[in-house]
Amino acid sequence: xxxxxxxxxxxxxxxxxxxxxxxxxxxxxxxxxxxxxxxxxxxxxxxxxxxxxxxxxxxxxxxxxxxxxxx
Length: 71
Prior knowledge:
Layout: H1 2-7, H2 17-24, H3 28-49, H4 54-65
Helix pairs in contact: 3-4
């Protein structure tokens, strides 16, 4: 669902043709940056909604910061 949100598509249960078409019309770097932004908001939302999860926030953010385009 995070992939769908990063593309501005209503989240669904699968990555289908609409999702693949949208990804295909983006550069790898643009998609990855959009996806990272969505993950950032997702993880920060978890920590905001449940303060007990804040201890995990740095680890979550560090994990997605490692995502990069492989060439």
